[in-house]
Amino acid sequence: KRLAILASGSGSNAEKIMEHFQSSDKAKIALVASNKADAFVLERAKKFEVPTITFTRKEMDAGDLLEKLKAEKIDWVILAGFLLKIPVELTRAFPDKMVNIHPALLPKYGGKGMYGSFVHEAVKAAGDTETGITIHLVNENYDEGRIVFQASVPLSESDTPDSIAEKVHALEHAHFPEVIEGLM
Ligand code: GRF
Known about the structure:
Pfam families: Formyl_trans_N. Residues 1-180 form the Formyl transferase N-terminal domain. Pathway: Purine metabolism; IMP biosynthesis via de novo pathway; N(2)-formyl-N(1)-(5-phospho-D-ribosyl)glycinamide from N(1)-(5-phospho-D-ribosyl)glycinamide (10-formyl THF route): step 1/1. Belongs to the GART family. By secondary structure, the protein is α/β, with parallel strands linked by helices. It has one domain: Rossmann fold, CATH 3.40.50.170. 39% of the residues lie in helices and 22% in strands. The chain has helices spanning 12-21, 40-47, 57-61, 64-71, 88-93, 116-126, 161-183; strands at residues 2-6, 28-34, 52-54, 76-79, 98-102, 130-137, 147-154. The chain has a seven-stranded mixed sheet with strand order 3-2-1-4-5-6-7, covered by helices on one side. Helix 1 runs parallel beside helix 7 and helix 6 crosses helix 7 (161-183). It is globular. It starts with a strand and ends with a helix. Bound molecules: 5-O-phosphono-beta-D-ribofuranosylamine. Residues 7, 9-14, 80-81, 101-103, 115-116, 168-169, 172 line the site of 5-O-phosphono-beta-D-ribofuranosylamine (GRF).
């Protein structure tokens, strides 16, 4: 299987995935694509000799990204910290073959505006005693595709949005690559 990773930022999850599949015969990371020309994920991809592309929102909405994914014969699309809304044509081109990771226990803290630190701030503000990660398939409705995996971590009163983010990242790194492999 040929996988493409879409990421907008640091790409620590992308790195774990590239590491994991370096020696796998199930899947190959064939492309890292980012809407941010200066995203650190692009540096990480270089280290693993994974080809990269960048694109603008406009280009994505015009179908350029989909064309590229087709040209590269991509079977699965992995969203790892990708912050743009995916055009419907793109989700339709990969039915049950697009995976996203969300840094909370969906259906809590999902939907518009719930990404990155906003999620952890909301969890802190609510005084929740646990949070976690959700790995789900992507469909046309934001954050509502079939959930394939969740894991949780306890929180204490002394946790801050930053410490919550650290705990969540650790969970993501521990599980995301293997959950992807399980889907192949
Ligand atoms: C992760 O927490 C992921 O759940 C979220 O964006 C973050 C990306 O982190 N949607 P990184 O770029 O993989 O370090």
